[in-house]
Amino acid sequence: MIGTWRLAGLLVRYRARSAMNAVRARPAGPFALLLFFGLASAVAYVGLFATALSTIGTQAGPAGEGTALALMTGAIALASLAAKSSDEGLFAGTPENEFLLARPLSLPRLVSARVLAALLTDPFGALFLLPVLLAATVAWRLPPLAALLAVATSLLAQLAISALAQTIQIAAVRWVPRRRRTAVFVVLRLLAALTLAAVWISATAVLRAPALFSRHGLALQRWSAPLAALAGPLVAYRSSGGAAALRALLPLLAATIAIMTAALAIVRRAGLQGWEEAGAPWSDSATRAPAGRPLTLVRREWRLLARDRPRLVALVVLPVLLLAVQWLGAVGWSSVTATVDRVAMVTFSITVYLAALGPLPHMQHEQRAFWIVRAMPVSIERVMRAKVAAWAPLVGGAATLMFAALAWSLRGPQGPDTAAVLATGAMVLVGALATTVLAVGLGCLTADLSDEQRGALGPGTVYLFLLLGGLLNVIFGADGGEGVRVGALYLVMVAAVWRSGMAQARQCLDPDARRAPLRLADAAVLLLLFALVPFALDRGLGKIGVAPEATALAHVVVLALFGLAAARLLRAPGSVSVPRRALGPSLVIGLLCGVGTRAARRWLFGAGPVLGDGWGAPGVLLVLLAVTLSEELVLRGVVQGALERELRPLGGAAPWVAAAASVVVAQLTVPAWTPLSFLLALGPVLARATTGRLLAAFAARLLILLAGT
Amino acid sequence: MIETDRLTKKFGDKLAVDGLTLSVAAGEVLGFLGPNGSGKTTTIRLLMGLLRPTSGQARILGRDCHTDAVALKQVVGYLPDEPFLYPYLSGREVLELVAGLHGFPAKEARRRAEAAAASAGLGDAAGAYTLTYSLGMKKRTALAMALLHEPQVLILDEPTNGLDPRGAREMRDTIARLASGGRTILMSTHLLEAAERLCHRVAIVQAGVLQAVGTPEELRARYAAGADTSLEELFLRATEATGTPR
Q1: Burial class of residue B31 in the structure, from the number of CB atoms within 10 Å of its CB (0-12 exposed, 13-18 middle, 19+ buried)
Q2: Which residues of B touch A102 (CB under 8 A)?
Q3: Which residues of chain B lie closer than 8 angstroms to A451, CB-CB?
Q4: Residue A188 in contact with residue A81, Cβ under 8 Å?
Q5: In the list A127, A135, B77, B219, which could disulfide-bond A49, CB 3.0-4.6 Å?
Q6: Chain A closest CA to B102's CA: distance in Å?
Q7: pLDDT level of residue A285 (50, 70, 90 thresholds)
Q8: Cβ-based contacts of B103 with chain A (< 8 Å)
Q9: A512 touches chain B (CB under 8 A)
Q10: For A245, phi and psi rounded to 5 degrees?
């Protein structure tokens, strides 16, 4: 029989190869994105925690720093253990279990090998604990050897956590009766959520308010003492040097060995019974469906949700926990400092998370059964509308309840007036309903159900949804006109995502179906981000007092990124759907449109401001060119192009209707709208509509911008 | 070579296999037939040591399938009904991994993987990710995995299930070739014509209970059927008495 170390080596080698293959096959796929975000977050955490620990050290001394480190590492270890123990693989079973157990491998050996392999193949285990320990070595200016100590501490902790988690799982299926296993799973999940909330609370306290932590954090020293084993070696290294650090590492080493030994003894005792049966269809065969009213499309969603207890628990637990954190835990946020807009933002953010767990993965839950509704004489729109109808009361109801609960804490003589609370509450409700429609539409837009081995929902979609949902927060706190503009833009985006989503849902079972090169949803999402990200950037950078020059530079960089994203969309073959004129005539038409717009502007609004001397500098011109090009790529290339494609059924009128629609939609991106901004957009739009070329629009735009304005 | 003695498996209140007593001699091919949900896959998983029997015993080569499961897997090859392959490993890489899990050194594992990929007829596809494989290719790869360590005993769960006519034919030919090589094979299948052609004897189970076992001729005699009565007819007679499966 193959030895433990060799088995671990094989698992590492083939998991790494599988991961590399996945990245190679889909360079921008879920795995690559996850790896990128994981590594980027880890590096960011090192910097953030190092800064926070330095601040705490300045005010509370080494004791305060030690407490903060013990609190953070302990909370992370507990959360990691709870999350790993409640992994679905155990209860749902994995095909890999059968694959490996059909080979000559014993369960204890497999568990040991998996524990060892996880040290290298489970980067997220290390990515959470190691950055905090490394941050301490940076903040305390320890020599490079201390980094090795941090790595050793992290590895020992991971070994213990991984062994303990697998043992908890195996023991649960071996000794907990089948009918109670779901309850155990739910309890473990709840525990995982609570410990993760604890990590959030402590991280919030340490990162957001290190000064406040230094004043009050020492009181936590007594509580953090049992968690000190992980922080101990580094604290000892700092105070007494290497020998003391190694002595401080010994308890952790002993604990890890003891946990591994106990884990293997339990696994040996448990044997295969239970574990290998987990996830077998017979497990739940005794469960009979209770009689109920006949299913409709809406009722189907509710019934499926009601019977999917882990999902239901997650949906209930998440808002309760986040609300509790807001009420009780997070430093820097309290009912005293809250305003009704802040309450709305918190509520809406939690609602977006809720929608990411609820309606967003709806196609993931359809997966193999989707053919049933596709084979029925029911339109896809009706099926999806039923999903919205099923989820809207749940998401909207949860948002209203959360808002009411948080708004209640604002009452008092200094509190906002009832009308303001009601108006903001109504906006939260409308936002929650729009988010539900967006979740269902986006779930359809990215779904590919043609391959059962692939999930219908990738992490990229979840991040995009959270970003789009989160951006609606801009509405709260914006003045009336600005709020209306952002709301209208948001509704345009939701409608476009819905329309493109339905088209994708119609063909999602067909593996040969080709994605349209430039979809309305792509254009609308890009337009929304193009309009709101700079707005959010201004607000964010303004709050922390960044210099205007740096803010301007950030804007240029963001605009350039949008230009690159638009160019990538336009590079796809077939992205231009209208006939194009030759290059020379197009350029001439573009310049003529520019001249015409300038003349109209002079006639209607008088001469524009004259540019100062600095405009001639090559650097400034380069920035101007880049920004103009980016804007044209987004507005005329992607938005007008996608509208032309969508309106193709109109034939020859399509470019002109698309031009008219794009002028209106593009005006929603202008923060301070004036008739002049409308007029100035006409030249490039007409140039593009007449020639089918982006170059003509760019020429018109440059002429309007540079020639004497 | 393969023996079960009053083998029983319960899942909660559900009796999946009910006192199954059966034997397969060395070099024999036994067709394991039964309607869906009759306990065929459960019996096969019990034989592979993937499930623990509620009572009774299963033995292969005289060794207990549960207590000696690890050692037995060195001499038994197993083809599951729905084979799992790592989607982002190539067929060749999965075969190398399985050879490694059987304890072969790296060089030997590579040689065996190459040979198995060639004999499975994977051709250039051996270097492609298995997520691009058709069901037939997945089954052929899984069979190659089962044969990598040259086992004396083969346990095949629905080897032709889901395959197109050409794929099913190729799989049948492969099994016939393995049988003529003297291997002991227990094979569950729904293809009664193939079972009649490939198997020395067939066992018919219904609701976890063994209804009949013997050569097609013995079954004809048992059910007083004529020489031209097909195995399909015999199967229906054997299973109709106990009604719908549990």
Answers
A1: buried
A2: 48, 50, 73, 78, 80
A3: 131
A4: no
A5: A135
A6: 6
A7: very low
A8: 1-2, 6, 104
A9: no
A10: -65, -45
Asked if A99 has any chain B CB less than 8 Å from its own CB, the reply is: yes
The whole-angstrom distance between A268's CA and the closest CA on chain B is 12
- Digit-coded pLDDT (tens) for A418-432: 888 898 899 999 999
- Res A182: pLDDT: 72
Q: CA-CA distance, A141 to A135, in Å (whole number)?
A: 10
ipTM of the complex: 0.77
Positive or negative, the CA dihedral A92, A97, A98, A99 is positive
Is there a contact between A275 and A170 (Cβ–Cβ < 8 Å)? yes
CB–CB contact A2 B102 (8 Å):
yes
- Asked if B234 and B219 touch (Cβ cutoff 8 Å), the reply is yes
User: Is pLDDT at A446 greater than 60 in this prediction?
Assistant: yes
**pLDDT tens across A102-145, in order?**
888 888 888 888 888 888 877 666 667 888 888 888 888 888 88
pTM of the entire structure?
0.68
pLDDT of A563: 92
Question: What pLDDT, in 10s, does the model give residues A291-309?
Answer: 667 778 888 888 888 877 7
Average of per-residue pLDDT across B99-109: 90
Give Rg (Cα) of chain B.
Answer: 18
Describe the strand order of the beta sheet including B201-206 as a list of residue ranges: B76-79, B153-157, B184-188, B29-33, B201-206, B209-214
Query: Quick one: pLDDT at residue A281?
Result: 44
Residue B31 is classified by DSSP as E
Q: What is the mean pLDDT of residues A368-375?
A: 77
Tell me if B93 and A17 make a contact (CB, 8 A cut-off): yes
Mean pLDDT (chain B, rounded): 86
CB-nearest to A103 from B45, B73, B89 is B73
pLDDT recorded at residue A1: 73
Reported as a pLDDT band with limits 50, 70 and 90, residue A200 is low
> Cβ–Cβ of A25/B97 closer than 8 Å?
no
Interchain proximity B102–A10, CB inside 8 Å: no
What confidence tier does A330 reach under pLDDT thresholds 50, 70, 90?
Answer: very low
Q: What is the mean pLDDT of residues A3-14?
A: 90
Angle, helix A459-471 to helix A340-357, in steps of 10 degrees: 160
Residue A332's contacts (CB-CB under 8 Å, 6 or more residues apart) are: A204, A208, A209, A212
- Residue B22 pairs in a beta bridge with B4
Q: What is the distance between the terminal CA atoms of chain A, rounded to a whole angstrom?
A: 82
Q: Are B62 and B71 in contact (CB under 8 A)?
A: no
Q: How far apart are CA A499 and CA A481, in angstroms?
A: 27
What's the gap in Å between the CA of A189 and the closest CA on chain B? 25
Question: With left for phi above 0 and alpha for psi between -120 and 50, is residue B165 left, alpha or beta?
Answer: alpha
Contact yes or no for B101 and A14 at CB 8 A: no
* Chain center to CA of B64: 18
Report the alpha-carbon distance of residue A170 to residue A184 in Å, rounded.
12
At residue A72, φ and ψ (nearest 5 deg) are -65, -50
Q: In whole angstroms, what is the distance from residue B212 CA to residue B209 CA?
A: 9
Question: If pLDDT is split at 50, 70 and 90, which confidence band does B241 have?
Answer: low
Q: What SS3 state is found at A84?
A: helix
Percentage of chain A beyond pLDDT 70 is 84
Candidates B14, B72, B100; nearest CB to A285: B14
CB contact (8 A) between residue A277 and residue B49 = no
Side chain identity, residue A21: N
Residue B166, C-beta contacts closer than 8 angstroms, at least 6 positions apart: B136
Q: In a mutagenesis test of the A interface, which of B75, B88, B104, B150 is the best target, namely the one with the most A β-carbons within 10 Å?
A: B88
DSSP letters, A520-581, are HHHHHHHHHHHHHHHHHHHHHHHHTT--HHHHHHHHHHHHHHHHHHHHHHHHSTT---S---
